[in-house]
Amino acid sequence: MTAKGDAKVKLAKCASFEMAAKPFEDRWGEGVRGKKDARELSRTLVTIGFNTAKSSNGGTDNYASILENIIRMVKVRMQCR
After folding, report:
1. At residue 9, does pLDDT exceed 80?
2. Based on C-alpha coordinates, what's the Rg of the chain?
3. Where are the chain's structural domains?
4. pLDDT in tens, 41-61
5. Which residues pair with 6 in a beta bridge?
6. What's the rounded mean pLDDT across residues 17-41?
7. Where are the alpha helices (DSSP H) in the chain?
8. Measured in Å, how far apart are the chain's first and last C-alpha atoms?
9. Is the CA virtual torsion 12, 36, 30, 56 positive or negative?
10. Exposed, middle or buried by CB within 10 Å (0-12, 13-18, 19+), for 77?
11. Distance CA 34, CA 44 (A)
12. Contact present, 64 and 45 (Cβ < 8 Å)
């Protein structure tokens, strides 16, 4: 299945979050397991190649900083419950 009408963008449909997360765990889990802090996790994802942090080679510029800020904001919002 494609997303946004772009054949290069793939979309998967999973029956559960666990099923969706399993391929990530299989490929990247060992590298990020045990990371407890947003900064450490986001930088590790770049180091292990999940995202290059460079748009010139398919990554997202400043990926680690962007992800770190997203994680922090989710934590803040979760405390508002």
Report:
1. no
2. 15
3. 1-33, 34-81
4. 999 999 999 999 999 999 999
5. 3
6. 94
7. 17-32, 38-47, 63-78
8. 36
9. positive
10. exposed
11. 11
12. yes
